[in-house]
Amino acid sequence: MARGATAPLYQQIADELRTQITSRALRAGAQLPTELALADKHGVTRATARQAIGVLINEGLVVSSRPRGHFVRQVDRMIYRPQSEWRPQPASPEMDRFMEEQTSLGREPSQVIGVELVTPPDEVARRLDLDSDQTAVVRRRVRFIDGMPFNTNDSYYPMTLVEGSPIMYPADIPQGANQVLTELGAEQVRAIDEIEVRMPTPDEVHRLDLSAGVPVAVHRLTGYTHDGRPVRCTINVLPGDRHVILFERAKPAPEHETDSTTPGGEPHRVDGSLADRGTQ
């Protein structure tokens, strides 16, 4: 749209409603004015009012509940803490960190876990230093809260490293993947985290049942051993309408208490901030 041009009427109505939602003048669960009420207020047709509401539905702000009407979407967002990698494993072998934390909040978590042998995508092969003909093991998860898919968590490992280990089985790992890697002589002691915000792929839309217009944050973690060998690449996909990403930082320790470089040569502190939420 050219500078100074007037937005279409449906967009103006959508903008007004969006402002009311984000300012909490219309709170979660509140019913929007009807199409007829919006049409009368703004002097437009019902079709234009319907188009405005459709914009907000596509953005994930509004849900339709026919024949009752349209309502501000009510989603209790999940707090995603990338720095929780080194928190102790739950006492119960039936739960990983995700399951334990959400249960403690009174929510009903569940997850679907699958394991595959794959030729990894280029972005993973590059991070794991795998040749084009090398196989990786991927543990795929879709995590649900209260029956709603909240995020995906796909962890790739070199096949030659984890073959025959608990990582190969589609179930929770009681001791955690970090401990399994340690037992395999490949303890993960540092990581590089990358966070990208983009629109989802068709596969992500399908796996996470995303509404049109909802962006995702992609958290990629590559874990390394003491000698700089990559042993895991995890890709977490977090819908923007379901998560708050929470980082905790501390003042760096004196220089003699830090590690000088990451495997890629960048300054990096080994302080328990490895960032893979509940990856197993």
In short:
Helices cover 24% and strands 26% of the residues.
Would you mind describing this structure in some detail?
By secondary structure, this protein is an alpha+beta fold. It has helices at 9-22, 35-42, 46-58, 97-104, 122-127, 159-162, 177-183, 202-208, and strands at residues 62-65, 69-72, 78-80, 109-118, 136-145, 148-158, 190-198, 216-224, 230-239, 243-245. Strands 4-5-6-9-8-7 form a 6-stranded antiparallel beta sheet. A two-stranded antiparallel ribbon has the order 1-2. A hairpin with a 2-residue loop joins strand 5 and strand 6. Helix 1 (9-22) packs across helix 3 and helix 2 packs across helix 3. The longest helix is centred in the first third of the chain and has 14 residues, at 9-22. The model is unreliable at 264-280 (pLDDT under 50).
Q: Can you tag this structure with a few keywords?
A:
280 residues; alpha+beta; Arc Repressor Mutant, subunit A; 2 domains; 24% helix; 26% strand; elongated; disordered C terminus
Estimate the helix proportion, in percent. Answer: 10-25%
In the CATH hierarchy, what is the class of the largest domain? Alpha Beta
Mean pLDDT reading: 85
Tell me about the largest β-sheet: 6 strands, antiparallel
| Helix and strand run | HHHEEEHEHEEHHEHEEE
Number of H- or I-type helical stretches: 8
- Tell me the domain tally: 2
Topology, number of strands: 10
Q: β content, as a range?
A: 25-35%
What structural class do helix, strand and pairing data support?
A: alpha+beta
Low-confidence stretches: 264-280
Give the strand order, joined by hyphens, for the main sheet: 4-5-6-9-8-7
| CATH fourth-tier homologous superfamily of the largest domain | Chorismate lyase-like
CATH architecture of the largest domain: 3-Layer(aba) Sandwich
Radius of gyration: 23 Å
Shape: elongated
CATH fold-type name of the largest domain: Chorismate lyase
